[in-house]
Amino acid sequence: MRFNNTGEIKNCIGDGDVGLDIGTRTIAIASQSDVKILELADRIQNIESKKRRILRRMDRSKRSTNPDNYNEDGTIKKQGNKKIIWNKSNHYIKYQNELRELYRKQSAIRRYQHECLANYIISLGNKVYVEKMNFSGLQRRAKKTEKNDKGKFKRKKRFGKSLANKAPSMLLTIINRKLGYYGEQLIKIDTSEAKASQFNHFDGTYTKKSLSQRWNDFDGVDGVKIQRDLYSAFLIMNIADDLKSFDIDKCNDRFENFYQLHNLEVDRLTGKKNLSSIAI
Question: Would you give the distance in Å from CA 136 to the centre of its chain?
Answer without folding.
Answer: 13
